[in-house]
Design a protein that fits this description.
- It is a single chain.
- Strands 1-2-3-4-5-6-7-8 form an eight-stranded parallel barrel, surrounded by nine helices.
- Helix 2 packs antiparallel against helix 11.
- It has a single domain, classed as Aldolase class I (TIM Barrel).
- The chain is α/β, with parallel strands linked by helices.
- Strand 7, helix 9 and strand 8 form a beta-alpha-beta unit.
- Helices cover 41% and strands 15% of the residues.
- It has twelve helices and eight strands.
- The radius of gyration is 18 Å and the shape is globular.
- The site of zinc ion (ZN) has 6 residues, from loops.
């Protein structure tokens, strides 16, 4: 990849599918994952190993992971919440390359999400991450509510970086910063990533924006301008978060890819193929998805 190459990790099969009110049939999930795997994407989060009673939408995660035919060149990641999740994932060790672990940067959100204090989460992840590394897995740690918390308000960047440093010390090779409830603004994001580059020198930094208030792509540009070259997004703008209720999802992969290509960046992703996957998701879900490029189509400069 060239200096202008940007990494995009597709998270729709996890972040998206888990937030759908209806449970998507396993066959549909497998087909959608396989469509995405043939778009030129190099990274994809395929599912998560959470308890089925907590997230029934992903109860068939192991089956999807076992069945989906994904080309060798796509780095497959799975989300694991704890050691038990890692143990379950390791039963399918040959089916994936990376694990993602997560916690929130605000106490109230972490409590609401995993019913633990941040310190308890960190101590748990300090056992999960080294075990994942020993199993030969690449390890990504995602810090949710990095830019603001719906319960606590502002979250100091220093606090986010301190949490990230603990996870890097434990062995995480990449840190994702999540704007889980879409509170970030571009000026804040720019300053955040400039500081993050100093605080976490040498660590791959990834931005995970939600389009809750329509600012997801503006935030992505701000992160780009501050040197961030890695993003997570969700095809069709799938995904969301229970807070605030009814909120839209992650930035749409096709909107991000369209914008990056128009700006002269390379992603290696075939935009038309992503749109095809999103169209198929629309058919499966039986409702229009939030993606803009899905409605308008790719930019065509011959248009009047
Ligand atoms: Zn998300």
């Amino acid at each position: 990849m060239t200096a202008t190459a940007i990494h995009v990790r597709e998270v729709g099969p996890r972040d998206g599918f888990q937030n759908e009110p209806e449970i998507i049939a396993t066959d549909d999930k497998v087909r959608l994952v396989e469509l995405l795997a043939r778009t030129g994407l190099r990274r994809m989060e395929v599912t998560s190993f959470v308890r089925a009673d907590v997230i029934p939408q992903l109860a068939d995660g192991p089956e999807v992971l076992a069945r989906a035919e994904i080309p060798e060149e796509v780095a497959v990641s799975v989300l694991v919440p704890n050691e038990r999740g890692l143990d379950k994932a390791l039963e399918l060790r040959d089916r994936f390359d990376e694990v993602s672990v997560f916690l929130s940067a605000s106490e109230a959100h972490n409590r609401a999400n995993v019913n633990r204090s941040i310190e308890e989460s960190l101590q748990g992840l300090e056992r999960v991450v080294p075990r994942a590394r020993e199993a030969g897995l690449r390890c990504v740690a995602v810090v949710a509510t990095s830019f603001g918390c719906p319960y606590e308000g502002a979250v100091a960047p220093e606090r986010v970086f301190a949490i990230a440093c603990r996870l890097v010390d434990a062995g995480a090779q990449e840190i994702g910063f999540g704007d889980t409830t879409g509170m970030a603004n571009p000026r804040q994001v720019r300053s955040f990533f400039e500081q993050a580059a100093d605080a976490l020198d040498g660590v791959q930094l990834t931005a995970h924006f939600h389009n809750t208030r329509g600012q997801g792509l503006a935030n992505a540009v701000a992160a780009l301008d501050a040197g961030c070259a890695s993003f997570e997004s969700s095809f069709g703008e799938l995904g969301g978060c229970p807070v605030p209720a009814g909120a839209t999802g992650n930035i749409a992969t096709e909107d991000l890819v369209s914008m990056l290509h128009e700006m002269g960046y390379e992603t290696g992703i075939d935009l038309g193929a992503v749109l095809e996957a999103s169209r198929e998701a629309q058919r499966v879900l039986g409702r229009p998805l939030g993606s803009h490029t899905l409605v308008a189509g790719p930019v065509d400069w011959r248009d009047g």
